[in-house]
Design goal:
The chain is of the alpha/beta class. The protein has one domain (about 1-150): 3-Layer(aba) Sandwich (Alpha/beta knot), CATH 3.40.1280.10. Helices cover about 45% and strands about 20% of the residues. It has helices spanning about 15-25, 50-65, 85-95, 115-120, 135-150; strands spanning about 1-10, 30-40, 70-80, 100-105, 120-125. A five-stranded parallel beta sheet has the order 2-1-4-3-5. β3 (about 70-80), α3 and β4 form a beta-alpha-beta unit. The longest helix has 19 residues, at about 135-150.
């Protein structure tokens, strides 16, 4: 099993780097994890046209790195919400369908464009709450780890 986290931006806070490293280490028992950090596009002016330009440039960068053989899941407010059990069942169902490589895509802070949204296999909404993208990465890693624990009937704190 191979899992890629494809994201815009780098982790900046030391505590988040350490937490993500801890979950990456834990996930090593279950999968090969690859985290790909792409450059964030800087907003020149805070106007709708410049924001759209940032969205388009970051989405194009993400599209360039998508592997069509992966099961690509975009993090999106318009995506499917799951509780932890349902998320683990979804992953298990996709594995049973023959998918062995998953890519979780975290867009930039302004979101993604329809072109990218139409190229993925699924969209996942972590919550209707707004999270910084750095925390989103940690949450994804934790939920993937939790899913493996659930699927393997292993004890994990609640």
């Amino acid at each position: 099993m191979k899992i890629t986290i494809l994201c815009i931006g780098k982790l900046k806070e030391k505590y988040l780097v350490e937490a993500c490293q801890e979950y990456a280490k834990r996930l090593g028992k279950y999968c090969k994890l690859n985290i790909v950090e792409l450059n964030e596009v800087k907003l020149i002016k805070d106007t709708p046209s410049y924001v759209q330009q940032v969205i388009n440039e970051e989405s194009a960068s993400l599209l360039e790195h998508l592997n069509p053989s992966d099961y690509n899941i975009l993090l999106s407010l318009r995506g499917q919400e799951y509780d932890s059990i349902a998320f683990s069942k979804m992953l298990n169902n996709k594995m049973n369908e023959g998918h062995s490589s998953f890519c979780f895509i975290i867009g930039g802070s302004y979101g993604t464009n329809p072109e990218l949204e139409n190229k993925v296999n699924a969209s996942w909404c972590l919550s209707s709450l707004t999270f910084p993208h750095q925390i989103t990465r940690l949450l994804i890693l934790e939920q993937i780890y939790r899913s493996f624990k659930i699927l393997n009937n292993e004890v994990y704190h609640k």
